[in-house]
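Structural biology now treats backbone shape like a language. To illustrate, our science desk offers a sequence and the tokens encoding its fold:
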Amino acid sequence: MNLTVILGSMALVASVGILWWGLTGRPHAARVNLFAGLERLETISHPSSPWMRRLGQAVRRFLPRQLVDGLEVNLVQAGHPYGLDLARILGIKVLLAGFTALLLVLVGHPVYAIVSAAVMFFLPDYWVLSTRDKRQAAMQADAADIIDQLTICVEAGLGFDAALARVGTTTSGVLTDELRRTIGDIQAGVPRAQALRMLADRAQIVEIRSLVTALLQAQQHGVPMAETLRNQSAEMRLRRTQRTEEKAAKLTVKMLFPIVFCFMPVFMIIVAVPSFLSLGDSL
């Protein structure tokens, strides 16, 4: 068998294995705590692969600061999927690009190797952005219900911190996980205002930013917390309704392309072809 094919196959299998192994790792505890609050001990107690992290840290020195900082922010907002931290994902990016370039060079396509290496280097960035968008959409869908439960707990006599803890233990979801992180920050000694701002920075959705701003203003001016939460809940439900109506209005435009280019040609073929065949037989 050709040696080039063997080496190329080995490089492809190794790159897929490294990608899977990197995705199943755990984040660095200090980095996660710095950006996203304190994690549970069972989440950060697993050892990470040191050489992958060292590779990512070495590559970080040669990358533009804006690129690295943007990836780090997106990774935090994505919730560190599969336990990835910045150093590990940088290592994965380098290994994917390197193995792809090696594979194409071995098969005799050096020009394609450069282009493919660049594509594979930025492919994890696209995956992080996609994961972040899905996570934010899930938080937007749960925001109104979570605030309703907070309002009920506060109106029932619980303090705001106790209401957060109650909702965090009785519900599940992405937004609930962020509330649990906020509770952990407050219990660890972080001021409530700072913990809420960290929640808004991690979520990066309009509903949470508006809620945090309203809560901080209510705390500063002495406005009852239950009234603030009730108003925010009504506003969030209105936004959710408007967002649903906006999606419904866009549906007509989105359906135009499949109807014109997919449905209409098939319909015309079904209608017109038998007529042409009958006309040809009559002639």
